[in-house]
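User: Predict the complex with zinc ion.
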Amino acid sequence: MLGLFSIYISFFTIDKLEIQNIDVELHVNGDNAYEYIRDQLDIGYRIPGTEERKNCAIYFISKFQEIESNFTYILHNFTTHSTECQNVLFKLNQNYGNIIILGAHYDSRAKATKDPNPLNRSYPVPGANDGASGCAVLIELARVFYQRRINLSCQVWFLFFDAEDQGRDNAYGIDNWGWCEGSKAFVDEINSFYNSETENLDCMILLDMVGGENLRFIKEQYSTSSLLDELFAVGRRLGYTEQFPSNPTTASIMDDHQAFVNIGIPSADLIINFWDNPHWPYHHTTQDNLTHISNVSLEITGKTVEQFIYNNYLNNTANTYKGNYPWHENINILNLELVIFLIGILSICGVVIAVIYFKRKDTYNEETHLS
Ligand SMILES: [Zn+2]
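Assistant: Here is the predicted structure with zinc ion placed in the model:
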């Protein structure tokens, strides 16, 4: 019965949303994104405080400058645990007041704390999926949105976080580091990155582990449900029903979107089941390398975000939300529909009972009459 409920609820919440501009050709290319992961892995392990981490930030700048030589960027330097860290922010279409933040972390984990071989657990994680995949899709989206920038009625931020992945798991981690230090540091100073009088942070979409084989997104519970539901609806409308299943696993994941949720910005985490997943069991192991990356998964993620932006901001000059977000904070549509569903079931039960009652009464009357 519970299963029946969830099938019913998912059907209603995910598939009912109407998607605009669905006929626009999508340009995100998974092969490009795959190469951007290879580039990041070629740089080396992007551990906070290392030359490789710095070189990776320089790599992002060079990729954005390939798109436009004077692409606007801001380096956000911060120090955590006496280590110099750096978030990197690129801004497209600064003439628009409505801002969409697309984020991913670019640090890779210093220790493979979940490696099945205990001897490997002091080695670093290559971070092909955990880190590099989200960054690769951001670069590809920047290339694609730049080509259509004139038709987009929003500003897009591409935000690369440092120091996300050095926290503690399996009882040991990296010397007192927490998770998501980069996004917390960024949000602490968010007012210095935009003008709240003239600009509005509409939403934040985080891409984390979006390039592995057998991609299957979960319904992450800290995410703003209406925003995540729309991303699922867009993905399913594009035919990616395996990657955006109607019965997704649900879980609450500490990730870089949380800091944004906490200050009231609708935010969603596109992430997989990474803790108990026989189809991609490489999280925080030395096996999180290019071998288990799929250009198809990268393309599906990228095209879904591409279509999401077109759904809301392509040729749509009427959209000036100004604090009135289209993605309200977790209006729980699920509960509302559950109530409607229960009322429906009760009504049907009532009718059935009434029919049985009157039938019996008739039979009784007939019997009485006969006797
Ligand atoms: Zn990680």
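The beta strands are 72-80, 83-92, 98-105, 155-161, 200-207, 219-220, 250-251, 267-270.
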